[in-house]
Design brief:
Blueprint (H helix, E strand, L loop, with lengths): L1 H23 L13 H7 L40 H4 L7 H9 L1 H9 L16 H12 L2
Helix pairs in contact: 2-6, 4-5, 4-6
């Protein structure tokens, strides 16, 4: 009985991934070990597509391409020059916690992550906090 449930879960996951792949022309969030749900994070991140691309080799828009952002030093995306001065000087690396904090409130996160209470960012307010923020962070982590 346990094997039947496991097989059903695997088949369901494969169908979800195939559906996502068809919808996004190959960008499929891979499951990652985290507090967030990458598949739900992909759905939550749809709003971000107005300013960011998510594909390998995707264009820089109002905001930088977010493909491969996880593990990158903040403010250091080659080919993107519109970072705020504080983000250009940042030394922190994007991890799940910093990404989740950022999509909740970039205005507050930049201050905490840089240790500068006067730090600023040009990014607009997101308000994707809690589970939604964790899910987006998991999705961004999956883009490799």
């Amino acid at each position: 009985m346990k094997n039947i449930w496991m097989m059903a879960l695997c088949v369901s996951f494969m169908l979800v991934c195939q559906s996502a792949k068809a919808a996004d022309k190959g960008v499929v969030p891979t499951p990652v070990s985290s507090a967030g749900d990458a598949i739900n994070g992909k759905h939550q991140a749809k709003r971000c597509k107005g300013c960011h691309s998510f594909n390998s080799g995707g264009r820089q828009m109002t905001g930088p391409n977010l493909f491969g952002v996880y593990g990158r030093t903040a403010g250091k995306n080659a080919g993107f020059s519109k970072y705020s001065g504080d983000l250009k000087k940042a030394t922190f690396v994007w991890d799940e916690a910093s990404l989740a904090a950022w999509v909740c409130s970039s205005k507050e996160a930049i201050k905490a992550l840089t240790g500068n209470p006067a730090a600023k960012t040009r990014m607009s307010v997101q308000k994707k906090c809690g589970t939604k923020g964790q899910d987006i962070a998991a999705y961004l982590k999956s883009l490799k």
